[in-house]
Amino acid sequence: MITKNTKSLVEYIAADENMVCVFRCCLVRGLITQKMAEKITGLSTKVVRNVIDQLVKPPYPCAPALESAGSMQLAGRAGRPENFYILTHEGAAALESIEHCSGLHAPALSNSDELLHTFAEMQVYTTAVQAGFQTTVERVLPYGNKGRNIRPDLLLQKNSPGMIFEIEQEANAASLPRIISKLQGLLEFFQSPESRNISKQIHILFHVANEYAATVSIWQKALNQVIINNSGEALPYELHAKVLYDFINAPAWHIGAFEPIQPMEQEISRPQPSAPSLAPAMVFPFLSNSGEMLKKVETWAEEVSLETQNPQRMEEFKANAFNFFTLMKMIYGASFYRDSPTELYGIRAEESLELLKRYLYDPKNQGLLTMLKTELGKLEELKGRVTTFRDGLTKTYWKFMVYHGFDRDGAIKLTVEAPEFGGSSEYHVWIRIQNIDTIMGRSYYSSRGMGQMNGEEKALAWVLGTIYLHAEEFGLVEPKKK
Length: 482
Known about the structure:
Helix content is about 45%, strand content about 15%.
């Protein structure tokens, strides 16, 4: 049952045909910009602007239907970012009532990756609708008799078999399990009769700026692994790639405008969980500059003034922060990605655990490993004394941060929450990072609600929490005596 305020909002919107027309744009993904609404509806800039203003600030007693949530733009695009608006809870209820549908929701403001992906989906959707395609976003395509399905980002149809368009972000080695899983799902789908009305030429739009070649090489490796898994047989589909911004800037729908992705002839072996002692060295971007940074710090310590505002040094600090948070997301993202087995079924995060273990036992991190063993060993004696233990765990986490060049009272806020009677039975880590969008070079800003963390914050919180929760498994503390 809708509330009185929502009913008032429905009546207010339904009384204006232009408002209904613009509001319907939110049916697709719960996110819209003024330019998108203009292109989809064909209404003028002035009309759309006025309608959005009214949906954001309707008259009393109506609750806002849209929320102004920030601004963003596609990677590679210059100029001012676009302001974007998302459905409020009341707005979703009103739109469901107007359109007689259900299940509407907006992307979570706490998830910067989801926001950016939704924004990119809507850019392609808008372009496709303008070109006359019947377009659906994240439509479930079932196959087989075991409830299997794929969910392409966009499915386009116009007097021909449906065309699948996928939007992908920058990929690295930790992305391989997710990409292989995705390609394996496409293999099974195209081996089924349910694929007969879908083109076997898959369009991949990479939302990257300068990482296109490196990202494509990861997909080539993934393709090769899927072929190996398929007994060396050729795949029943083809992948064709293009940079997302280039496509939006000059839309071309024929397959010749895309670059085919061919498998890389190189066998990929899946990392296997192993004892800490055999963890091989793994090179991360952060480590390549650690020696140089250490020498610089030794020099600076001899000076009366560190002159930290030197532009060149500021860029180095920013690069260090970027590499660190990229590293954290790489470790976390190996198991925690959209529709991953861990996210869907709650299975053990083997890939992320293995990457973290290898990182801790890398020879270049010997100082970090020694510190963690010492500090976690001390904590074993404090269990049962909640306040003292929480203080010790917090200090241990900050020593981890200090090792990587960060400290208290800066951009990173770290809180350890103790177990509560009737609440959580574990120690939880909450992270807040100021200016994270600037650090990561993102072209938008997004707000977060209380108790919410974005991608980098979740990744760092998971790494810190896992170091404590898996300390015995990682060999950081002595096994408990039975």
